[in-house]
User: What shape does this take?
Amino acid sequence: MVNVLAVVVLELFTSQGCSSCPPADELLSKVRNQPGVVALAYHVDYWDHLGWRDPFSSHQWTERQSQYVRAMHLNSAYTPQMVVNGTAQFVGSQASALKSALASSRPAVGKVSVTATRTFNTVTASVHADAPSSDDVMLALFQNDATTSIRAGENSGRTANDDAIVRRLLRVTNGEVKVPVEASWRNIGVVVFLQNRETLAIDNAAVAEVR
Assistant: This one.
């Protein structure tokens, strides 16, 4: 599989239950295939009690967003929130802010590559990372092109077309990593990124599609 050096890693915290999120979801979908960009969408679970449970939501993603809230000294979490390289954030639907983020790419630190294949309900990733000692090597498995008919909540009656949906997030080491997947998951890919465990800055990343 072809690896892409990522100098801008975009993490969108979103929910199908949030009426402000669809424009941010669409914006992420527009830029996810640009060279040098890796896009990841984390569907948080704190909207699930308001009439619609997002089928992609997880409390793990809410906890990840809370880590950024603390690291950036924000008052609270919100959706849609876009985090850039783990160090900057803005309202995820702001196209001008996203354009500025993409234009202000910085040199990558360390080296990372990944290839991935799928056999039935398992994705096998081969990870090679030369990471600074301060960084964790993280692997995210994501899904593109998922369509959901929303039947309740703030977006009731809408059809959501979601990309870059994070399904798994693991701390890994170099070598072969096996990730369980559900048979229904299609259009999936793997991202490996280097993240400073103290500042949460993302220093480098690579992405591979899984066929």
